[in-house]
Amino acid sequence: MLNFWRRVSTECWVDTNVHLERLTPSPDTVVSQARQANIVLIATGTQPGQWRWLQSIRGVGKAYGLHPEAIPAADDWLTELRACLVHDVDAAVGEVGLDWRPAFADHDLQERCLRAQLALAIELDRAVILHVVKAHQAMLTILRDFPGLRFTVHAFTGSADIADQYLALGGYLSAGGLITRKPAPRVLSVFATMPEDRILLESDAPDLPMAGQAVSDPCHLPEIGRVLAALRGVSTASLAIQTQQNARVLFGGGCVQSG
Ligand SMILES: [Zn+2]
Q1: Residue 225 falls within a domain, yes or no?
Q2: Which of 44, 89, 196, 241 could anchor a disulfide with 63, C-beta 3.0 to 4.6 Å?
Q3: From the CA of 103, how far away is ligand 1's center (Å)?
Q4: What is the pTM of this model?
Protein backbone atom coordinates (compact mmCIF):
# COMPACT_ATOMS: atom_id res chain seq x y z
CA MET A 1 0.00 0.00 0.00
CA LEU A 2 3.01 2.25 -0.40
CA ASN A 3 1.45 4.57 -2.98
CA PHE A 4 -1.64 5.07 -0.85
CA TRP A 5 0.31 5.74 2.35
CA ARG A 6 2.60 8.27 0.69
CA ARG A 7 -0.39 10.57 0.29
CA VAL A 8 -1.59 10.23 3.90
CA SER A 9 -0.62 12.85 6.47
CA THR A 10 1.03 11.31 9.53
CA GLU A 11 -1.41 13.32 11.70
CA CYS A 12 -4.53 11.42 10.55
CA TRP A 13 -6.60 8.81 12.25
CA VAL A 14 -6.84 5.56 10.27
CA ASP A 15 -10.14 3.66 10.21
CA THR A 16 -9.02 0.15 9.26
CA ASN A 17 -12.45 -1.31 8.42
CA VAL A 18 -15.32 0.50 6.71
CA HIS A 19 -18.11 -1.13 4.70
CA LEU A 20 -18.62 1.80 2.34
CA GLU A 21 -21.25 0.05 0.21
CA ARG A 22 -23.63 -0.17 3.19
CA LEU A 23 -23.38 3.47 4.30
CA THR A 24 -26.25 5.76 3.34
CA PRO A 25 -24.37 8.80 2.03
CA SER A 26 -22.51 8.37 -1.25
CA PRO A 27 -18.94 7.11 -0.98
CA ASP A 28 -17.67 10.52 -2.11
CA THR A 29 -19.57 12.17 0.76
CA VAL A 30 -18.34 9.65 3.35
CA VAL A 31 -14.74 9.99 2.16
CA SER A 32 -14.80 13.78 2.11
CA GLN A 33 -16.51 14.03 5.53
CA ALA A 34 -13.88 11.70 6.93
CA ARG A 35 -11.09 13.68 5.32
CA GLN A 36 -12.43 16.89 6.89
CA ALA A 37 -12.37 15.10 10.27
CA ASN A 38 -8.75 14.04 9.58
CA ILE A 39 -9.61 10.37 9.10
CA VAL A 40 -8.32 8.04 6.39
CA LEU A 41 -10.41 5.00 5.48
CA ILE A 42 -9.62 1.44 4.53
CA ALA A 43 -12.73 0.10 2.77
CA THR A 44 -13.31 -3.64 2.75
CA GLY A 45 -15.09 -5.54 -0.01
CA THR A 46 -16.44 -8.86 1.22
CA GLN A 47 -17.76 -10.56 -1.93
CA PRO A 48 -17.18 -10.48 -5.71
CA GLY A 49 -19.93 -7.94 -6.51
CA GLN A 50 -18.48 -5.50 -3.95
CA TRP A 51 -14.93 -5.98 -5.22
CA ARG A 52 -15.99 -4.75 -8.65
CA TRP A 53 -17.81 -1.78 -7.10
CA LEU A 54 -14.93 -0.93 -4.77
CA GLN A 55 -12.45 -0.83 -7.63
CA SER A 56 -14.10 2.38 -8.88
CA ILE A 57 -13.94 4.22 -5.53
CA ARG A 58 -11.21 6.82 -5.11
CA GLY A 59 -9.44 8.25 -2.07
CA VAL A 60 -9.52 5.22 0.23
CA GLY A 61 -7.28 2.28 1.04
CA LYS A 62 -8.89 -0.99 0.00
CA ALA A 63 -9.13 -4.61 1.00
CA TYR A 64 -10.68 -7.36 -1.11
CA GLY A 65 -11.67 -10.69 0.36
CA LEU A 66 -14.34 -13.36 0.53
CA HIS A 67 -16.12 -13.07 3.90
CA PRO A 68 -17.36 -16.33 5.47
CA GLU A 69 -20.97 -15.10 5.17
CA ALA A 70 -20.59 -14.65 1.40
CA ILE A 71 -19.14 -17.92 0.14
CA PRO A 72 -20.67 -18.46 -3.31
CA ALA A 73 -21.69 -21.81 -4.83
CA ALA A 74 -19.27 -21.50 -7.74
CA ASP A 75 -15.58 -21.40 -6.93
CA ASP A 76 -14.26 -19.11 -9.66
CA TRP A 77 -14.07 -16.29 -7.08
CA LEU A 78 -10.41 -16.94 -6.30
CA THR A 79 -9.37 -16.08 -9.86
CA GLU A 80 -11.32 -12.84 -9.62
CA LEU A 81 -9.90 -12.03 -6.21
CA ARG A 82 -6.37 -12.54 -7.48
CA ALA A 83 -7.10 -10.26 -10.43
CA CYS A 84 -8.40 -7.50 -8.09
CA LEU A 85 -5.31 -7.72 -5.89
CA VAL A 86 -2.89 -7.82 -8.81
CA HIS A 87 -4.67 -4.83 -10.36
CA ASP A 88 -4.56 -2.83 -7.09
CA VAL A 89 -1.06 -3.25 -5.68
CA ASP A 90 -1.97 -1.10 -2.65
CA ALA A 91 -4.83 -3.37 -1.55
CA ALA A 92 -4.97 -5.75 1.41
CA VAL A 93 -6.94 -9.00 1.74
CA GLY A 94 -10.10 -8.79 3.85
CA GLU A 95 -12.42 -9.30 5.48
CA VAL A 96 -11.79 -13.02 5.44
CA GLY A 97 -12.07 -15.49 8.27
CA LEU A 98 -14.07 -18.02 10.22
CA ASP A 99 -17.52 -17.62 11.75
CA TRP A 100 -18.82 -20.62 13.65
CA ARG A 101 -22.32 -19.22 14.19
CA PRO A 102 -24.96 -21.70 12.90
CA ALA A 103 -26.16 -19.63 9.94
CA PHE A 104 -22.76 -19.72 8.26
CA ALA A 105 -21.28 -22.20 5.78
CA ASP A 106 -19.90 -25.49 7.07
CA HIS A 107 -16.55 -25.35 8.78
CA ASP A 108 -14.57 -27.29 6.17
CA LEU A 109 -15.72 -25.00 3.38
CA GLN A 110 -14.91 -21.88 5.41
CA GLU A 111 -11.46 -23.20 6.26
CA ARG A 112 -10.71 -24.06 2.62
CA CYS A 113 -11.73 -20.56 1.49
CA LEU A 114 -9.65 -18.96 4.24
CA ARG A 115 -6.54 -21.01 3.55
CA ALA A 116 -6.72 -20.19 -0.17
CA GLN A 117 -6.88 -16.48 0.64
CA LEU A 118 -4.07 -16.58 3.20
CA ALA A 119 -1.88 -18.36 0.65
CA LEU A 120 -2.71 -15.61 -1.85
CA ALA A 121 -1.84 -12.93 0.73
CA ILE A 122 1.56 -14.55 1.33
CA GLU A 123 2.20 -14.94 -2.39
CA LEU A 124 1.31 -11.30 -3.16
CA ASP A 125 2.78 -9.96 0.12
CA ARG A 126 -0.44 -8.37 1.39
CA ALA A 127 -1.78 -7.80 4.89
CA VAL A 128 -4.99 -9.58 5.89
CA ILE A 129 -8.01 -8.29 7.86
CA LEU A 130 -9.47 -11.26 9.74
CA HIS A 131 -13.06 -11.79 10.88
CA VAL A 132 -13.20 -14.35 13.70
CA VAL A 133 -16.39 -15.28 15.58
CA LYS A 134 -16.48 -18.23 17.98
CA ALA A 135 -13.55 -19.74 16.08
CA HIS A 136 -10.33 -18.44 17.64
CA GLN A 137 -8.71 -21.83 18.24
CA ALA A 138 -9.38 -22.96 14.67
CA MET A 139 -8.05 -19.61 13.37
CA LEU A 140 -4.88 -19.84 15.45
CA THR A 141 -4.25 -23.39 14.20
CA ILE A 142 -4.55 -22.21 10.58
CA LEU A 143 -2.41 -19.10 11.13
CA ARG A 144 0.44 -21.29 12.39
CA ASP A 145 0.57 -22.81 8.89
CA PHE A 146 1.28 -19.35 7.40
CA PRO A 147 4.40 -18.02 9.13
CA GLY A 148 5.23 -14.46 8.19
CA LEU A 149 1.62 -13.56 7.38
CA ARG A 150 0.80 -9.92 8.22
CA PHE A 151 -2.66 -9.82 9.80
CA THR A 152 -5.06 -8.01 12.09
CA VAL A 153 -8.07 -9.44 13.94
CA HIS A 154 -10.86 -6.93 13.46
CA ALA A 155 -13.25 -6.03 16.30
CA PHE A 156 -11.35 -8.28 18.71
CA THR A 157 -13.38 -9.42 21.74
CA GLY A 158 -11.45 -12.48 22.92
CA SER A 159 -9.62 -13.24 26.14
CA ALA A 160 -6.11 -12.19 27.15
CA ASP A 161 -4.88 -15.71 26.42
CA ILE A 162 -6.28 -15.63 22.87
CA ALA A 163 -4.90 -12.11 22.37
CA ASP A 164 -1.44 -13.26 23.46
CA GLN A 165 -1.49 -16.07 20.92
CA TYR A 166 -2.35 -13.70 18.04
CA LEU A 167 0.30 -11.25 19.22
CA ALA A 168 2.91 -14.02 19.43
CA LEU A 169 2.21 -14.77 15.76
CA GLY A 170 2.95 -11.12 14.92
CA GLY A 171 -0.70 -10.11 14.65
CA TYR A 172 -2.47 -6.83 15.35
CA LEU A 173 -5.78 -6.39 17.21
CA SER A 174 -8.31 -3.78 16.26
CA ALA A 175 -10.63 -1.89 18.64
CA GLY A 176 -13.95 -0.38 17.59
CA GLY A 177 -17.13 1.09 19.03
CA LEU A 178 -17.57 -1.81 21.42
CA ILE A 179 -14.92 -0.47 23.78
CA THR A 180 -17.16 2.58 24.41
CA ARG A 181 -20.16 0.36 25.35
CA LYS A 182 -19.14 -1.34 28.61
CA PRO A 183 -17.81 -4.56 27.05
CA ALA A 184 -16.68 -7.57 29.09
CA PRO A 185 -13.87 -6.50 31.45
CA ARG A 186 -11.50 -8.95 29.73
CA VAL A 187 -11.85 -6.99 26.46
CA LEU A 188 -11.01 -3.69 28.16
CA SER A 189 -8.10 -5.34 29.90
CA VAL A 190 -6.68 -6.67 26.59
CA PHE A 191 -6.82 -3.23 24.98
CA ALA A 192 -5.57 -1.46 28.12
CA THR A 193 -2.42 -3.57 28.41
CA MET A 194 -1.49 -4.93 24.95
CA PRO A 195 1.66 -3.60 23.24
CA GLU A 196 1.13 -0.13 21.78
CA ASP A 197 2.69 -1.10 18.45
CA ARG A 198 0.00 -3.71 17.68
CA ILE A 199 -3.22 -1.73 18.21
CA LEU A 200 -5.45 -0.56 15.38
CA LEU A 201 -8.74 1.33 15.34
CA GLU A 202 -11.84 0.77 13.24
CA SER A 203 -15.40 2.02 12.99
CA ASP A 204 -16.63 -1.16 11.17
CA ALA A 205 -19.27 1.28 9.88
CA PRO A 206 -22.20 0.80 9.70
CA ASP A 207 -21.87 -2.13 12.16
CA LEU A 208 -20.82 -2.15 15.85
CA PRO A 209 -21.72 1.47 16.68
CA MET A 210 -20.20 3.22 19.67
CA ALA A 211 -22.26 4.08 22.76
CA GLY A 212 -25.15 6.44 22.05
CA GLN A 213 -25.23 5.75 18.30
CA ALA A 214 -27.59 3.52 16.30
CA VAL A 215 -25.21 3.17 13.36
CA SER A 216 -21.44 3.37 13.20
CA ASP A 217 -19.79 6.08 11.12
CA PRO A 218 -16.11 6.63 10.30
CA CYS A 219 -16.39 10.08 11.90
CA HIS A 220 -16.84 8.35 15.28
CA LEU A 221 -13.24 7.11 15.13
CA PRO A 222 -11.65 9.98 17.09
CA GLU A 223 -14.13 9.40 19.94
CA ILE A 224 -13.31 5.68 19.96
CA GLY A 225 -9.66 6.71 20.00
CA ARG A 226 -10.25 9.12 22.88
CA VAL A 227 -11.85 6.35 24.96
CA LEU A 228 -9.00 3.96 24.15
CA ALA A 229 -6.38 6.60 24.97
CA ALA A 230 -8.02 7.23 28.37
CA LEU A 231 -8.13 3.47 28.99
CA ARG A 232 -4.39 3.23 28.28
CA GLY A 233 -3.46 6.43 30.11
CA VAL A 234 -1.94 8.11 27.05
CA SER A 235 -2.86 11.30 25.20
CA THR A 236 -5.37 11.08 22.37
CA ALA A 237 -2.87 12.73 20.03
CA SER A 238 -0.19 10.16 20.75
CA LEU A 239 -2.66 7.32 20.28
CA ALA A 240 -3.65 8.73 16.88
CA ILE A 241 -0.01 8.86 15.81
CA GLN A 242 0.79 5.40 17.19
CA THR A 243 -2.21 3.70 15.60
CA GLN A 244 -1.52 5.33 12.25
CA GLN A 245 2.09 4.14 12.38
CA ASN A 246 0.82 0.67 13.18
CA ALA A 247 -1.50 0.76 10.18
CA ARG A 248 1.38 1.90 7.96
CA VAL A 249 3.61 -0.92 9.14
CA LEU A 250 0.88 -3.54 8.73
CA PHE A 251 -0.72 -2.40 5.47
CA GLY A 252 2.16 -0.50 3.93
CA GLY A 253 4.78 -3.12 4.64
CA GLY A 254 6.75 -0.93 7.01
CA CYS A 255 6.59 2.53 5.39
CA VAL A 256 6.26 5.08 8.18
CA GLN A 257 7.15 8.27 6.30
CA SER A 258 4.67 10.61 4.68
CA GLY A 259 5.62 12.92 1.89
ZN1 LIG B 1 -16.30 -8.89 10.54
Answers
A1: yes
A2: 44
A3: 15
A4: 0.95
Q: Which domain holds residue 186?
A: 2-252
Separation CA 77–CA 71 (nearest Å)? 9
How far does residue 132's CA lie from ligand 1's centre (Å)?
7
Q: Domains in the chain: how many in total?
A: 1
pLDDT (0 to 100) of residue 255: 44
Examine residue 173 and state whether it is found in any structural domain, yes or no: yes
Cα 8 to chain center, whole Å? 18
Distance 2 CA to ligand 1 centre (A): 25
CATH number at residue 196: 3.20.20.140
> What is the pLDDT, as a whole number, of residue 92?
97
Strand partners, 45: 64
CA 25, 31, 32 angle in degrees (round to 5)?
95
Identify the segments of the chain with pLDDT beneath 70. 1-2, 253-259
Residue 57 CA, ligand 1 centroid: distance in Å = 21
- Which pLDDT score is estimated for 2? 60
In a domain, 244, yes or no: yes
**Residues 225, 35: Cα–Cα separation, whole Å:** 16
